[in-house]
Amino acid sequence: MTFPDSAYRSDCSSCAGLCCVALSFTRSADFPEDKAAGDPCRHLGPDFGCGIHDRLRDRGYAGCTVFECSGAGQQVTQVTFGGTDWRTEPDLRRSMFDVFGVMRQLHEMLALLEEAGWRGTSTELADVTARVSSAAGGTADQVLATDVPALRAVVGDALRQVSAEVRRPAGAALSGADLVGRDLRRRDLRRADLRGALLVAADLRGVDLADADLLGADLRDAAAAGADLSQALFLGQSQVNALRGDASTRLPEGLARPAHWT
Fold first, then answer.
1. Ramachandran area for residue 226 (φ above 0: left; ψ -120 to 50: alpha; else beta)
2. What is the pLDDT of residues 44-100, one digit of tens each?
């Protein structure tokens, strides 16, 4: 099964470093220090590039290597604000950062709807996608006025229909299951419902996850060497970035193999 390249992937070269400024982070295993929302990361360069991009994990910024904005950054920078940035127009800082927070959610929904359109046959998908696209393409004020919870509910219904269609006959019912640290190498997870499942540090080595619904599943530090995720449903780049995979891990077309995998 081959899909075209997604339109919802981050392009940092077209963004004004929004994730490096608008978002906060806290000293933890993922970050070596605290940073308040609205404060630029000290490694953000004058060209909006990261000064330690190739050494993020070595320097303690594992959280940055997992993050994915689904193209919201370039949408806000190039479309909503017409190519300007928060340094050139400091009066736009607050608005730009607030819009980025909403746009991330809209683009996450659009990325999922895009995949749903490739894999499902629901006649509602086009209308739902048009609603979300319209919201994402609005002015800053229009984006901020978006009723995100209402849209998310409509999108959720559409995605559930596609999931049921793709996973027929349904596999294991594990939605929201606590599978932290579990050895799942002998479980049949094909067509499984793993929505929102906690798979932190789980052992998925060699597991076939064909048509398994992974929407919202927490895959941090899950071992995925040799796992076949090539046909997994609703698997995002940020989830892939959080896995411990290697060259033998099979990924869906369009998702990048993280540089930190060995």
1. left
2. 999 999 999 999 999 999 999 999 999 999 999 999 999 999 999 999 999 999 999
Of 145, 155, 165, 150, the closest CA to residue 99 belongs to 145
Phi, psi of 69 (to 5 degrees): -95, 0
Residues 194-223 have pLDDT tens digits of: 999 999 999 999 999 999 999 999 999 999
Cα–Cα distance for residue pair 174/179, rounded to 1 Å: 9
Instruction: State the burial class of residue 121 (Cβ atoms within 10 Å of its Cβ: 0-12, 13-18, 19+).
Output: exposed
